[in-house]
């Protein structure tokens, strides 16, 4: 059944590769139906992969091989809440280590240019701390990081 609301992500011919990577990397993710073009189109030929239905952590997505010329920006990102440093490291390293690039404050981009926020739950809770001084310390610690270091966030929160 087709989801009523689906995130459509533009790729330049490699939607199936991206969908497979996401399915291998993130829990509750899978590659669904691969649709092939019924005729030639500006970015491809009849029989080429046109779209790929997939899920990323339960979110319905459709990869569209729309061709060159459209790029992703940080205006759209997947935010992934992680439970511990091991999960944070695994996801960050999978994205960056597969041709992606590091950014700041838990942000990185995959090799297709899609932005990801790998955000430990501890960080989200720390910057929402009811003690404004503690929240500020945690926030300032985060501002110095690429990949989030949970131990440093906890130390900042505690005032160490």
Supply Rg.
18 Å
CATH secondary-structure class of the largest domain: Alpha Beta
Average pLDDT figure? 96
% residues in beta strands? 25-35%
CATH topology of the largest domain: 2,3-Dihydroxybiphenyl 1,2-Dioxygenase, domain 1
Q: Label the overall shape.
A: elongated
Q: How many E-type strands?
A: 8
Percent helix: 25-40%
Major sheet characteristics = 4 strands, mixed
The SSE order reads: EHEEEEHEEEHHH
Q: Helix- and strand-based class?
A: alpha/beta
Low-confidence stretches at least 5 residues in length (pLDDT < 50)?
none
How do the strands of the widest beta sheet line up side by side?
Answer: 1-4-3-2
Number of helices: 5
Total tally of structural domains: 2
How would you explain this protein's 3D organization?
The protein is α/β, with parallel strands linked by helices and 160 residues long. It has two domains: 1-67, 2,3-Dihydroxybiphenyl 1,2-Dioxygenase, domain 1 (Roll); 71-160, 2,3-Dihydroxybiphenyl 1,2-Dioxygenase, domain 1, CATH 3.10.180.10. Helix content is 32%, strand content 28%. The strands form two sheets. The protein has a four-stranded mixed sheet. A hairpin with a 5-residue loop joins strand 7 (107-109) and strand 8 (115-120). Helix 4 packs antiparallel against helix 5 (150-158).
Protein topology:
Elements: E1 7-11, H1 15-25, E2 30-36, E3 49-56, E4 59-65, E5 77-82, H2 85-97, E6 101-102, E7 107-109, E8 115-120, H3 121-127, H4 132-142, H5 150-158
Parallel strand pairs: 1-4, 5-8
Antiparallel strand pairs: 2-3, 3-4, 6-7, 7-8
Report a brief summary of the structure:
This protein is of the alpha/beta class. The chain is 32% helix and 28% strand.
